[in-house]
Specification:
Length: 210
């Protein structure tokens, strides 16, 4: 059995070495994409192995201005999709994002933006949407769009929303609770998953916007 024995030992060793090499190469490539200096040591953000291109989109801000891919370039962007009638997740999340915002230094806020996108354009009029988001922070951007645009964009970002019929013709909207992270090149790089911790998210963003 010496043959089998040797083979049995050699194979796992080679496999482990190859795996280690691949992991090292992958890490190196991953770091390269974020550029020098060394990647930040993030506490709360979950980063994708590689940034993902965001397909072209056309939304409309509550103030009437367009919101497109171009707006997600030049700064880090936090994006959250929800609706103003949301009883819990949206107000909680926007409240947390407000805390994050206030924890950052003004110079860091200049390298960051926070966008709230309504997936309930039927009920969220520009006036209502603008007022709702401004209640949390006048610095946050509120926007919405057609269902076609919203469906395409949320899917591309790995998010979901679905209208759920209620009583008396009323309805609610189930939606993903992640806050997504867009890099200054306008690419999807990661997300923050609930439970959201303002302190840890602010610490991450302080590093990214340094
Ligand atoms: Ni919500």
């Amino acid at each position: 059995m010496p043959r089998r024995h040797n083979l049995g030992r050699a194979l796992p060793t080679a496999t482990i070495l190859l795996a280690a090499l691949a992991a090292g190469l992958g890490l190196w490539l991953g770091l390269g994409r974020f550029g020098a200096p060394a990647p930040p040591n993030l506490q709360a953000a979950l980063l994708y192995p590689a940034p993902r291109t965001v397909p072209e989109f056309h939304l409309t801000r509550a103030d009437g201005a367009p919101l497109t891919n171009a707006d997600w370039q030049g700064r880090w962007t936090l994006v959250f999709f929800g609706f103003t009638h949301c009883p819990d997740v949206c107000p909680t999340t926007l409240g947390t994002l407000k805390q994050v915002w206030t924890r950052l230094a003004p110079a860091q806020r200049e390298r960051l933006r926070v966008d709230f996108v309504s997936v309930d354009p039927q009920r969220d009029t520009p006036e209502q949407l603008g007022r709702y988001v401004a209640f949390f922070s006048p610095d946050f951007v509120a926007a919405t769009g057609s269902d076609t645009e919203l469906t395409a964009l949320t899917r591309a970002l790995g998010l979901l929303y679905v209208r759920v019929p209620g009583e008396n013709g009323d309805y609610s909207v189930d939606h993903s609770a992640q806050v997504i992270l867009i890099d200054p090149q306008g690419r999807l790089v990661g997300l923050f998953r609930p439970p959201l911790d303002a302190g840890r998210i602010a610490a991450d963003l302080a590093q990214l916007t340094r």
